[in-house]
Every structure is written in structure tokens, then in C-alpha cells.
Amino acid sequence: MARTKYPIYVANEPRTPNEDLLVTDKFTGKTAYKVPMAEPEVIDEAIGWAVRASEPMAELKAYERRLVLEHCVDRFRERFDELADALCIEAGKPIKDARGEVTRLIETFRIAAGEAERITGEVMPLDNAERARNYVGLWKRVPIGPCSFISPFNFPLNLAAHKVAPAIAAGCPFVLKPASLTPIGALIIGETLAETDLPKGAFSILPCRRDGARAFTEDPRLKLLSFTGSPAVGWDLKARAGKKKVVLELGGNAACIVEDWDLEDAVERIIFGAFYQSGQSCISVQRVLVHEDLYDRFRERLVEGVLRLRSGDPHKEDTFIGPMISEDEASRLHGWILDAVRAGAIALCGGTRKGAMLEATILEDVPGGERVVNEEAFGPVLVLSRYSDFEEALARVNDSVYGLQCGIFTRDLYKAMRAWDRLEVGGVVIGDVPSWRVDHMPYGGVKESGLGREGVRFAIEDMTEIRLMAIRTP
Length: 474
Hints:
Strand order of the largest sheet: 14-17-18-13-12-20-21
CATH architecture of the largest domain: 3-Layer(aba) Sandwich
Shape: globular
CATH superfamily of the largest domain: Aldehyde Dehydrogenase, Chain A, domain 1
């Protein structure tokens, strides 16, 4: 019989104080899991334990932190099918995409296990002037202390892993609030960590209501807040975070430029980048700018490819488009599509909705003021347009409040370098879609897309502080 109940974790230990959170199967809409909700006093207790765990966590040797992470890698491999099935149910993610996310969960913890032994410092000569002739410096990185993590619904395993695994590698205790729509993956991570010898208080995983969540942001005992989610929420949290360090991974409005490339390959990659997991990714391809010499051929092949995509039950192996996270979200984006069509856009395919299922949609000739162009769609819609000049295309990509990643399909090295120089984004991907990411690269955005970088090594840098020792030889 499939498991239907999971506990929360408070100071490394499971608790089941209630069953107030009902987690639905996003395809059927039926309750699939029952999970406790952490009350404010429990969150306060967990933060207190994290403070007490700061010293013993900081004292863990590199090999001890590595062994914890390697244990997680082994156990996630053993529980691979369970993790993928839970992800398919709670997030509505097609089973192939769910397996891909479990693979990335494992990779993220594996990378962190290696980085746990590579948190280095430096011997730094200080004798750059007569007054410092007898001085030498050494610096090292030390854990910042208790951390607060808030993870989103769309990658409930891997985006939680990008906070949890670096924290363990760095020696930081943490409290994690997973998205209430998709808490199961994070709770399985907690169940796995509970099998280790981490100091008591090293971790707590706490689905909770909004009133309780204030402590994740405002409690001064927490030294870092790492949030992944919407810009409106993220910037509000930063304003309320006080003196703690803040890392924000927020929304996007990712664009692709098709300049000079094999059309079959570009179409295949853009279809994947725009519509995998129903477009619910902050680096999903939303805007595609195609050079006018290629435009008509590209459009024809793109529409043909999208019409071949299978939609439906995410448990079926041939399903590519599953449900959006909720009917409300599908209705919201469907409204944006209808608004664009009323304003003069052409729907080349898709555009209809049934419950939480929204068809893969391509829009052409969308007026510039429409939300589907200017805001983050976060769903299965792509806006197609043509351009004549590469500099014009770069300017149109930059004409956005967002700046996460951009994809450029070009064989011209000089244009690639020009894009890298000009584009106001955190990452430029040449020969592929902006949706591409590996888990050790620096990942993050500028403008409304956030601040700071994820990627295990770069997250560890945020979770540690530099401590200098200067030595005088008399």
C-alpha cells in the first residue's frame, strides 16, 4: 500500500502533532498525503535548537560532513522510485521529468560531498608597505550560523537540495520551509538526514502557515535567508529580514535568440525549454526571437513539433505536458493568453484549458504591453517574434524587468561574446535554451530576478564568512 502520511522534522526528530496539511494529487485533485503543519511555537523551538547546534555543526570535520552527504546520496539512490513517484503525484510532474529531478537531487548532494572538503582559505602576504614588513595574513571560511530556507513548489526536491546540501557541507544548521503544495520531497530528505549522526538541532523541516512563516524571515537569531519563489514575495521578505544576509532566486522571463543554427536542433531544444513540466520553471523559454531569414521555416517546424506533444496523466511514460500546479494558476495564465488574443495576437496552436490542464500554446504578434510578454508566465506558453538585426534582438531581450538566463543559437563567436557582454542576465547559454542548468554552476539573476548565486560552491560562499588572522613577527 502506498504511503500516505509523513511527519515533520524538529531538531532532527519526526513529529506528527496534527494532519492539517492535505497534499493533493495535482492530476486527479484528490488528497494523496496528510502532513502536519508546524505551529509558531514549534518553529520558534526549531530555531532555538538551530542556534544551539551552531557550535557542534561548526566543529564537524570535513570528512564527517562528507559522510553525511554521501549517506544521503546512497539512500536517495535506493529510494529513487519512491522519490520520483511522490514528485509525480504532489507536483503533477510527468514521470520522466520526475526521474530527472531525482537524478539532479542525487547529483547536488554528490557535488556537495566533494565541496565539503574544498572549503579553503589562503596565506596572504601583508607586507605591501614598510609599516607592514613584519606581518603575514591567513584567512579561512567559517560557517555563518543558523540559516533559514524557503523553497518553491516547482522543483521541490532539487531546489530544496540546493539549500540543504551546501548548508551541511558548510557546517550550518538550518530550518527549511518547503512549499505547502509540495512538501513531500523535502520531508523525505529530512527522513534521510535523520538517519545520520548530525548534531541535534542541525535541521528542521517545517511546512507551515503564513503566520508561522514570519519567523523564517524576521527572527534575528537566523543569520541567512535563502528564498526561491516569486519576486513580489522575495523582495518583501528581504525588506523584513533585518540584518541577516539574503539570497533571492526569483522569477524570469527567459528569452531565446535564434540567429544561425540547425533548425531541427533549435526547434527541438526550444520545445523542451518552453514546455517541459508545463513551463513551470523560472528559466522556461517564454520569448523566442528568430532572425527574419529563418522565421517562416522555424515557425512551421515549431508548431508541428508542439502539436505532437502528449498531454495528460503525468504517470504515463509518453506524457510530456502534465497539469499545472493548480486550476487557479492554469486559469490565470489562460486569461493572459485570451487577453493577448483579444489585443491582436495570433494563437498558432493551443490556447484552451480544462481544469489544471492548459494546452501548450504558441502566440505570434503579441502587442508589447501584454502580460504574457512582460511578466513571468510560469506555464506552457511561448511568444514568437522576428527580428532583423542582432543588436536589436539583444536590446529586446534586455527590455524586461527580469534578468535570469538567455539562450543564443549562433555559431558566430563574436556575436556570442557580444551577447555575453551586453545581456543583463545572470547567465548566457550559447547553442542551447536558457532552461539548461547543471548543479555546480553559478546560477542566479539580476534586476527583478534576484541577488546572489546558487550552485553548491557559490551557495557555500554565502553560508560562510571570511575570518582573517594577521601575525606580526617582532
